[in-house]
């Protein structure tokens, strides 16, 4: 197995922190000397360094600082979990990896975290279900409609090709469960709904139900670890225009989630009834969930379907592989929100600034 240095961005976040924890759990294959974590604050640096990881306080918008970090620390693989909307963040990492490849003659790798919302009808995707082997890059490129997630995907793919960097796009679906990272433990939609429900004394759902794809955070972290293992083993994975992967374990319905949350919150006496109501208006939902009105319905009703013909990519074996496990865990989701809530998530902040 190759001895390559790995940088995880967003390492104090929900996904990035869980990826770091998953890598550390297999320290015989991923020694701490090879693990680097990009974070935003000195407090986060100190927290992650206590794990033995080299943490870097790094502004990904600063192209020069990113290049210095990649070159000085001899980074070969970047797992970018710090943002799927702003293409500049990934671009600076890819440019730095391109310089690293040029200086050493060694292959460099960029794993870009996207989101599956970009493949919903509500998000402007006209092609329906994505099937295993579909030319997703070509479909995004031909659509060329300016949707931020898809625009970033194509820009990242093209820049990586130009720089000679091996690039993979990981489509991240709805994520749930308690994270294993040192810093951020919570996902986005379910904790936001829990907090709004406690405030309003009732669980609300939209008047339109939606089935969408989902994954437990522990399974998602293992997906990234599996991809890194295959890179280190020298396996030639489809990359670039053919390098789109979807870490989808199962589908779930939002109405089912809302109803299960209503039961869990009612059992704790945190809402007045064990039934979910319909939001009276999108305005009320946006205010309660602390989201821009233009995104609030999309984030709760967008239908995304990914068909892998009953096979998971890369030989991945998610343990949370059906919606019943998720629905049965709503009590745990409530408890985790009450224990770990630290305010609005980074994604919500980004959405606020794009409104």
Automatic annotation (TrEMBL):
Q: Which domain of life is it from?
A: Eukaryota
Query: Do you know which InterPro entries this protein is assigned to?
Result: Epimerase_deHydtase, NAD(P)-bd_dom_sf, NAD(P)-dependent_oxidoreduct
For the NAD-dependent epimerase/dehydratase domain, which residue ranges apply?
6-85
Q: Which Pfam families match?
A: Epimerase
An MF annotation (GO) of this entry? aldehyde dehydrogenase (NAD+) activity
Q: Which GO terms describe its cellular component?
A: cytoplasm
User: Under which name does UniProt file this protein?
Assistant: NAD-dependent epimerase/dehydratase domain-containing protein
* Protein species of origin: Xylaria grammica
- Give the source lineage, highest ranks first: Eukaryota, Fungi, Dikarya, Ascomycota, Pezizomycotina
């Amino acid at each position: 197995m190759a001895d390559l240095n790995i940088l995880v961005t967003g390492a104090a976040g929900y996904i990035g922190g869980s990826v770091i924890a998953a890598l550390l759990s297999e320290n015989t294959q991923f020694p701490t000397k090879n693990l680097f974590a990009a974070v935003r604050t000195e407090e986060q640096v100190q927290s992650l360094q206590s794990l033995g990881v080299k943490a870097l306080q790094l502004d990904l918008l600063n192209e020069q600082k990113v290049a210095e970090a990649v070159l000085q620390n001899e980074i070969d693989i970047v797992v970018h979990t710090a943002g799927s909307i702003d293409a500049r963040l990934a671009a600076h990492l890819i440019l730095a990896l391109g310089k690293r490849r040029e200086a050493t003659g060694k292959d460099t790798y960029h794993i870009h975290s996207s989101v599956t919302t970009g493949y919903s009808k509500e998000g402007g995707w006209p092609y329906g279900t994505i099937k295993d082997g579909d030319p997703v890059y070509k479909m995004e490129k031909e659509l060329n409609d300016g949707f931020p997630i898809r625009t970033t995907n194509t820009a990242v793919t093209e820049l990586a090709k130009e720089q000679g960097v091996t690039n993979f796009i990981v489509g991240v679906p709805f994520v749930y469960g308690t994270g294993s990272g040192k810093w951020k433990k919570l996902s986005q939609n379910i904790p936001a709904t829990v907090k709004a429900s406690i405030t309003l004394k009732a669980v609300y759902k939209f008047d339109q139900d939606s089935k969408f794809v989902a994954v437990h955070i522990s399974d998602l972290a293992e997906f990234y670890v599996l991809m890194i293992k295959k890179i280190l083993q020298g396996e030639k994975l489809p990359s670039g225009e053919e390098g789109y992967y979807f870490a989808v374990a199962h589908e779930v319905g939002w109405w089912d989630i809302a109803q299960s949350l209503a039961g869990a919150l009612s059992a704790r006496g945190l809402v007045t009834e064990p039934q979910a109501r319909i939001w009276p208006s999108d305005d009320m939902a946006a205010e309660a969930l602390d989201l821009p009105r233009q995104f609030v319905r999309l984030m709760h009703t967008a239908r995304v379907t990914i068909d892998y013909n009953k096979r998971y990519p890369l030989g991945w074996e998610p343990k949370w592989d059906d919606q019943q496990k998720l629905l049965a865990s709503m009590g745990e989701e409530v408890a985790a929100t009450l224990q770990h809530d630290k305010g609005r998530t980074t994604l919500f902040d980004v959405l606020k600034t794009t409104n």
